[in-house]
Design brief:
This protein folds into two domains: 10-40; 44-95 and 102-143, Immunoglobulin-like, CATH 2.60.40. The protein has helices spanning 11-30, 154-162; strands spanning 49-53, 57-63, 72-77, 80-87, 106-113, 118-128, 131-138. The protein has 166 residues and is of the alpha+beta class.
Length: 166
């Protein structure tokens, strides 16, 4: 079986640019004479998110492992969903003993513009095993409606559509 993969020539450039931006930001933050201790391990980050939709809800799943529930804030204002949180570094471990720090620490904010089909009063959030799941219920008028098709002549259907009696 032959698998076809779509070639995207600029995908590697965007990945490289993101890595260079992160490295540049870490370098600038690491040279901060006022806060030398936290600057090497604390940075802002954006947790990855999956968004999917069905006929009743739009669901977001954010990966936020190691963040306590009390450190996550979810709010809806002016058709914008905002998720804010913070992953704190454990102070018991001495930072000079680290050989490598790849996990990102610090605060994050993710904002999403909600479509008009979402009911802002029907938002629920559930946190389990490092995944924050946010369900956005759709308004009743935005949900798909089943329309029954009657079998008969075209004239009968046309009369019903235009409101005329047959």
């Amino acid at each position: 079986m032959t698998l076809l993969t779509r070639w995207e020539p600029f995908r590697d450039f965007s990945t490289m640019q993101a890595r260079m931006n992160r490295m540049n930001r870490l370098f600038r933050e690491s040279y901060n004479p006022e806060v030398p201790d936290d600057s090497l391990t604390t940075t802002t980050f954006a947790p990855p998110v999956d968004i999917y939709e069905d006929e009743h809800n739009i669901t977001l799943k954010l990966e936020v492992p190691g963040i306590e529930e009390k450190d996550i804030d979810v709010s809806v204002e002016n058709s914008t969903l905002t998720v804010h949180g913070e992953r704190k570094i454990e102070k018991e471990e001495k930072e000079e003993n680290f050989r490598r720090v790849e996990r990102q620490y610090g605060s994050f904010t993710r904002s999403f513009t909600l479509p008009s089909s979402v009911d802002p009063g029907q938002v629920t959030a559930h946190y389990d095993k490092g995944v924050l799941k946010i369900k956005l219920a759709k308004k009743a008028e935005a949900k798909p409606k089943q329309i029954k098709v009657n079998v008969g002549s075209e004239k009968t259907l046309e009369a019903k559509v235009h409101g005329k009696a047959a």
